[in-house]
Design goal:
- The protein is of the alpha/beta class.
- The chain has 2 domains: 214 residues, Rossmann fold (3-Layer(aba) Sandwich); 209 residues, Rossmann fold.
- It has 13 helices and 13 strands.
- The strands form 2 sheets. The chain has an 8-stranded mixed beta sheet, with helices on both faces. A 5-stranded parallel beta sheet has the order 10-9-11-12-13, covered by helices on one side.
- Strand 4, helix 4 and strand 5 form a beta-alpha-beta unit.
- Helix 4 packs parallel to helix 5 and helix 7 runs parallel beside helix 10.
- The protein is globular, with a radius of gyration of 24 Å.
- The protein starts with 14 loop residues before the first strand and ends with a strand.
């Protein structure tokens, strides 16, 4: 198991362990299997492991046939046993990094995973953290745990007695998975890689170069960690900007969507972002707060991040107020009204609930006394989540009589499967948070945009 130089990881038929078989880990595992490597998916959920070994998918945009093909060829299997990592050439960590109830980073998944790897760490193994986190996590949290034994991975430029000795390789390479994106898959998206030292960076770059079109080397794990945060903070701040402009345009009697579309005709210096009912997904609502939390250690206030978070977090409250006002104009109160929410996924055409603004909308509507139902073609039923429990709710049928029975239909996620013209025709009132009804020409008096 020894003798792996950085060049070794550019070889074929490597054994790769991937910890966390979710929206990030599973596509990564299948991509490595597709290129001829032997992949072991490790997950703490026995149900997921059983499904994977039967060749079954639990993620909508990943076909069961794809999993079954690689399982049959023995290029992919799954387990709950960390001890099997001893036989791996490389181990990639793809576990969640959520926020806790105080909006502080919760690195328990990363820490527990590192603790589980440490007893099985082998000489010359490559360990890569892919989970989004603040700068310094790989070096300050993961490295000390992995070095509790006799093996060492010296930090680049650090003055210590083991500076010339690299017993294992450690790197950070942030995931850039975008579920549902048909234009850019894992293979087409460049991969940023930063190593604890030069050898680690080279090893990780050689590994990822086999599955992506381009690898981007940066000087350190900290630079790679910051790079991922910058990507998502850029989006968070710009979404907050258009959300704020949407509120201003409404007060001024203007259509913000028209304004954005016209500005987007400029071929340089402008990138369109679009307003909505709040932020969703595993990255944008979470990642900026990792940096603002870390910045406090340096006595630095990240004002743009805090302001963007404040604006985006307020959007579900704005939407619920808009529903109340639209009902009030029809001489109805929100309390006691029947409301149908369309779409609980965080974005269109995906089966992903993570940080979905719809979940907050549901909570606020019920707190205000609305009788709430939902429909989502990707979620026939809901389950208990970290902050919400809607496990008693089921997606209702979407037909004309059902739509007509609700006082308000709230479009929260603009799935392509919805027939918006038919929805508007049948509904008494439609509140549209996504401009999904822009092409509907009939019965526009029923539509309120917010």
């Amino acid at each position: 198991m020894s003798g792996r130089t950085p060049q070794y990881f550019s070889g074929k038929e490597l054994k790769i362990g991937i910890i966390g078989c979710g929206y990030v880990g599973l596509p990564l595992a299948l991509r490595f299997a597709e290129t001829g490597h032997f992949v072991l998916g490790l997950d703490t959920d026995p149900g997921k492991v059983e499904k994977l070994n039967r060749g079954e998918s639990y993620i909508k945009h990943i076909q069961s046939e794809q999993i079954a093909k690689h399982a049959k060829s023995r290029h992919f299997s799954a387990t709950t046993e960390f001890a099997q990592l001893r036989d791996m050439d490389a181990v990639l960590i793809c576990v969640p990094t959520p926020l806790d109830d105080r909006r502080d980073p919760d690195l328990s998944y990363v820490e527990n995973t590192a603790q589980s790897i440490a007893p099985h760490l082998q000489r010359d193994q490559l360990i890569v953290l892919e989970s989004t986190t603040y700068p310094g996590t790989t070096e300050d949290l993961v490295l000390p745990i992995l070095e509790k034994g006799s093996l060492r991975c010296p930090v680049q430029g650090a003055a210590n007695r083991d500076a010339g000795r690299t017993d294992f390789y450690l790197a950070f390479s942030p995931e850039r998975e975008d579920p549902g994106n048909k234009n850019y898959g894992l293979a087409q998206i460049p991969k940023v890689v930063g190593g604890i030292n030069a050898a680690s960076g080279e090893a990780a770059a050689n590994l990822y170069a086999q599955i992506v079109a381009r690898v981007v080397r940066v000087s350190s794990t900290r630079a790679a960690e910051m790079s991922k945060l910058l990507e998502n903070i850029f989006r968070c701040v710009n979404i907050a900007l258009v959300n704020e402009l949407k509120l201003l345009c409404q007060r001024m009697g203007m259509d913000v969507w028209e304004v954005i579309d016209s500005a987007a005709t400029k071929p340089f210096g402008f990138m369109p972002f679009y307003p909505g009912p709040g932020l969703g997904g595993h990255c944008i609502p979470v990642d900026p707060f990792y940096l603002s939390w870390k910045a406090k250690e340096y006595d630095f206030s990240t004002r743009f991040i805090e302001l963007a978070g404040e604006i985006n977090s307020a959007m579900p409250y704005h939407v619920v107020n808009a529903v109340g006002e639209a009902l009030n104009e029809r001489q109805k109160s929100l309390k006691g009204s029947r409301v149908l929410l369309l779409g609980v996924a965080y974005k269109k055409d995906v089966d992903d609930l993570r940080e979905s603004p719809s979940l907050k909308l549901m909570q606020l509507l019920m707190e205000r006394g609305a009788h709430l139902d939902y429909n989502d073609p990707y979620f026939p039923a809901l389950h208990k989540m970290r902050h919400y429990d809607y496990s008693a709710m089921r997606s209702v049928d979407l037909n004309a009589p059902a739509l007509a029975s609700y006082d308000c239909v709230l479009i929260a996620t603009d799935h392509s499967a919805y027939d918006y013209a038919a929805i508007v025709e049948a509904a008494q009132l439609v509140v549209d948070t996504r401009n999904a009804t822009r092409a509907v020409t009939q019965h526009r008096e029923k539509i309120t945009h917010c």
